[in-house]
Automatic annotation (TrEMBL):
It holds the Pfam family NLPC_P60. The keyword Signal applies. This is C40 family peptidase. Residues 40-166 form the NlpC/P60 domain. Belongs to the peptidase C40 family. InterPro entries: NLP_P60_dom, Papain-like_cys_pep_sf, Peptidase_C40. Residues 1-22 form the signal peptide.
Amino acid sequence: MSAMIRPSLILAAALLSACASHTPPPLVSESPAPAPQVASPVAHDVLFRALGLVGTPYRWGGNTPESGFDCSGLIGYVYNDVAGIALPRTTTEMSRMSAAQVKRDSLRAGDLVFFATNGGRRVSHAGIYVGDGRFVHAPSSGGTVRLDSLSNGYWQNTYLSARRVLEHEQLARNP
């Protein structure tokens, strides 16, 4: 009986290997995927520095890890520490810089995101976009620097705009 099984297995293996050697053509034409937009090395340094400050206490007017941070103090500290860029002190002034405005679906690591947390359309809060729909910010009294998602309902409803500071470093760099 084993003499009958052996030829059957060889025949089955030959048929299967013949089927596997031919790749069917794709049903739709394949086009190369668009290259992802890669942030600059400085942007990566900015986001890693910002992420390293998660857990630092919030303090209104604070602008150092030792004293704590408010939202604009955090942003100013990170950009100055990592990139040598002096940014305006308030979120309103930051939102008015002559840096490129960025659409929400085009955000890159290191971009500044702005919110109207007091209602209306007036900027009152900001953070640093780190990628994957998340940003680092110093949210409120009694809190700490943290990572949040732009898809959170609160942040979706208060989101206003974004700016890309790192493409216009010459506008904000210290002499």
